[in-house]
Design brief:
With about 120 residues, the protein is mainly beta. It is about 0% helix and about 55% strand. It contains no helices and eleven strands.
Length: about 120
């Protein structure tokens, strides 16, 4: 069974930065598109950023464009989310998602990000 393990979450003040990592194992990482989602209480899980399997194309939610950067290192089986200029509304549990097809995808367990003074 494939495994995705997120790390890098924590408590940060508004305006600060965090870098999330998601390490993948037991899957052919270079074939998967990778995404970061976040979920806050009472809301549906929302797509924050995505990157294609070859790393050539990325997409972002409008709310994070210009502040967040998704990247990947296929040699390390890892995807990253650099988050700058964090706002309280960025608070949530961030999930890593690996997609090979609509029928084959995996989720990580999530990492908490809290933006508060």
């Amino acid at each position: 069974q494939a495994q995705l393990v997120e790390s890098g979450g924590g408590l940060v003040q508004p305006g600060g930065s965090l870098r999330l990592s998601c390490a993948a194992s037991r899957l052919t990482f270079r074939l998967y598109d990778m995404n970061w989602y976040r979920q806050t209480p009472g809301k549906e899980r929302e797509l924050v950023a995505g990157i294609t399997s070859d790393g050539r194309r990325t997409n972002y939610a409008a709310s994070v464009k210009g502040r967040f950067t998704i990247s990947r290192d296929n040699a390390k089986n890892t995807v990253y989310l650099q988050m700058n200029s964090l706002k309280p509304e960025d608070t949530g549990v961030y999930y890593c998602n690996a997609v090979l097809s609509p029928e084959l995808y995996y989720w990580g367990q999530g990492t908490q990000v809290t933006v508060s003074s």
